[in-house]
Amino acid sequence: MSKKKLAVFASGRGSHLTNLFHAIEQGDIDAEISLVVSDVEGNGAALFAEAKDIPLLLVSAKSASSAIARNQCILEALTFHAIDWVLCLGYLKKVGTKIVEQYAGKMINIHPSLLPKFGGRGMYGLNVHQAVIDAGESISGATVHYVNEEYDEGAIIAQAEVDVPSGATPADLAALVLKAEHALLITTLKRLINHHD
Questions:
Q1: Active-site positions?
Q2: CB of 77 within 8 A of CB of 46?
Q3: How far is CA 131 from CA 152, 163, 191, in A?
Q4: What percent of the chain has a predicted confidence (pLDDT) above 70?
Q5: Is there a contact between 159 and 184 (Cβ–Cβ < 8 Å)?
Q6: Deepest in the core among 20, 75, 179, 180, taking most CB within 10 A?
């Protein structure tokens, strides 16, 4: 059986991409990263893709005049590279309806809270962790879920809890949750990809 081809959508540092790449190298996941899609030129994810010779699609505002054009460009790239699974790992643009429909059940996102709490528009990065602290939560964590047309509302696949330390700053909590995200992503992908029909 051929390896599953993954597309990673990322807008930031690329820590999830790096983590995933090394897990695949170690044989933990029977797949290959066949495409990286980013909307930020020169970010960590884009630089990592270039360094590892992974095909990279940049879809910044400069390269696509509208969301429709951007998503059509992405869909064509996914088709060209025969992508099996789409992984949204810190990607901040809303993914187009056609992509969501084509990859229904094969498109996942990782989110730095215990959804359905602290999800939705504007809930990303330190915004999430600030909201968790402001709400006085004692437990936060990470969620892997399927992507649908609404921000962070797709069916939940797996979660991991993290204690919120007393006096933690958003940056402190972000670091703790990121470790949980990394572990959760790999264990979830092992289950989904290694054993999927």
A1: 111
A2: no
A3: 16, 15, 31
A4: 96
A5: yes
A6: 20
